[in-house]
Amino acid sequence: MVTEVLGFSLILPFLPLYAQEMGASPFMVGMLLTTFSLFQFVSAPIMGRLSDIYGRKPLLIISQLSTLASFLILAFSHSLWMLYLSRAVDGLLGSNGTIAQAYLSDISDKKNRSKAFGISGVAFGIGFMIGPAIGGFLSQFGYNLPAYIAAFVSFLSIILTILILPETVKKQREVKFSFTIIDVKGFKDFWAQKKVRQQLLEFATYAFAQILFTSNFAIYTNKKIGVTSQDIGYALTYVGAITIIIRGFLIPRLIDKFGEKTLEKIGVISMIIGLFGLSIITQWNQIYLVITFFALGTALVRPLMMGDISRSVDDKKQGAILGIAGSVNSTAQIIGPLVGGTLLTYCFPNSVVYLAASLMVVGLILVIKEGNKR
């Protein structure tokens, strides 16, 4: 997981600005980021279900190969359509996160699942701490260089998966396979369950707010205070460092001491403070204070919500429910960049953070409502 996140985070600081150099408007940049999510929206549930049947390891390798191909296309890109193609190829089969989360569910019991998701966040944090700094620094020598490095890192992750990752799912001997582009029935079945619906709604508010801002972070800060890809890379590295500290060292202890719902409320409130704080910054050095709140919040909220979602169904449906959660996240990734790009193109920049903060206020209400019912 470290290598997967590292590969993507290498290209994250410069991709929006690279597209802008090729003539893309903020809305077109949003469309670029949406391309990946649109394809992943279709593929994530399918890959999750297939990993339940055929095993996590082979499906993970297939998804990693798709990601490798996407980085190579990006490295050779010379026009805007190739950037779009790169993101489409990655989204087509690159549902690594869904399968990795299902793998974590396989190797942890229900009681400790949120802790497992929190510890896995360390992998995310390590990749996110190293990747943006390297990608932002290397982008000054040409945007294709960090893309080549990302491709190499992705290749390394494939080798590691093949050599050291044990399988956790026993392949079914008799399989009745039916292909559906979107698992509407599966989603309806889960949605009909009140407990599952509550968890998915909470996660949807978080996912949309988080994606709405982070997908437009580079363009937002560039328009507001004129940052460069190197600045963005260093800021994202800082976010990664906070993620490592919270998820790797603190969250297991905090869960034992305060309980998951209390931590979830704290995380959501911290995100709200960070988002509203971003609207009043006037200089680049001020951004580190406000993104501290945002990073603390996201480091807490996501693993806690994923743990709740995982526990809401039985063990045999882990791949399926996490695939559905992946689709919810992908839906947010489809809508968020488009909405953010539209706001940045036609409205004032702060409208992006105001909308994201408002969504988290809704999320806070949902979390409090659930807590009162327990």
Can you put this structure into words, describing what you see?
This protein has 374 residues and is an all-alpha fold. The longest helix has 30 residues. The chain is globular and about 50 Å long. The relative contact order is 0.17.
Defining key terms:
374 residues; mainly alpha; 16 helices
Topology of this protein?
Elements: H1 2-11, H2 15-21, H3 26-54, H4 56-75, H5 80-93, H6 96-106, H7 113-138, H8 144-164, H9 184-191, H10 194-214, H11 217-225, H12 229-258, H13 260-278, H14 287-311, H15 318-346, H16 351-373
Give a nutshell description of this structure:
The chain has 374 residues and is mainly α. Helix content is 81%, strand content 0%.
**Fraction of residues in helix:** over 70%
Count of helical segments? 16
In round numbers, the mean pLDDT is 81
Q: What's the β-strand tally?
A: 0
Task: Give the percentage of residues in beta strands.
Answer: under 5%
Please trace the helix and strand order, writing H or E for each element: HHHHHHHHHHHHHHHH
- Cα-to-Cα separation, first versus last residue: 34 Å
Instruction: Supply Rg.
Output: 19 Å
Major beta-sheet overview: none
Instruction: List the uncertain runs.
Output: none
